[in-house]
Each structure stands twice: as structure tokens, then as C-alpha cells.
Amino acid sequence: xxxxxxxxxxxxxxxxxxxxxxxxxxxxxxxxxxxxxxxxxxxxxxxxxxxxxxxxxxxxxxxxxxxxxxxxxxxxxxxxxxxxxxxxxxxxxxxxxxxxxxxxxxxxxxxxxxxxxxxxxxxxx
Length: 125
Description:
Layout: H1 17-27, H2 29-56, H3 59-76, H4 79-93, H5 97-123
């Protein structure tokens, strides 16, 4: 059984423990660990792609990328990360690249929290 330290309230935690329990119930522990590892491999690549889209000023690609990252984050239970993606998606739709760049720094900070929590979960299989 996977374990998530829920000492923080669900609002402060980088991961929704109920979502992880739901995933484990449906997929089983081994497949859940595999899903976690896939997300941990995917997220840094996605963050780099977001930064590149901002750097070249491609708001439509940025919007599409953040929309996808938002969904992937929700699926793993990274609700705050998903909310930041939603904000960036909106900024991209409005063409606000400077604000999107500032939001990207927040995404990276939140990703570090999510990564630490996912690492803890995957070690307690």
C-alpha cells in the first residue's frame, strides 16, 4: 500500500492523498508506482517546453502545453500544480508572456514540492 504523509492539510499538501488512494485502488500499487514514475519523467520535460515557448513568444503552443500539463497534474493529484497551469493557460490565451514567465517560476517551485512528495510516496510501496 502506498503511503503519503498527510501531516499537512490537503490544501497545503502538494498531492491530494485521496486521489492517490483512488488511483491505487483502480490500478494497484505497481501500476500506480509506474504512473508516478512516468509523471516524474514527464514533468521536467514539460517545464522545459513551457520555458521554450515563452522564450520564443509562442502563446498558442504555450496554451496547449499548459492545458496538457494541467490535465496530467490533476490525474496524479497535484492540484496546486494544476491550478498554476490553469493560470498560465489563461495568461497564454491573453498573450501575457511576461506574466506567464513569472508564473513559470511558481510552477517550477511547486513542481519541486510535488516531486519530493511523489518520491516519498514511491519509496513507501
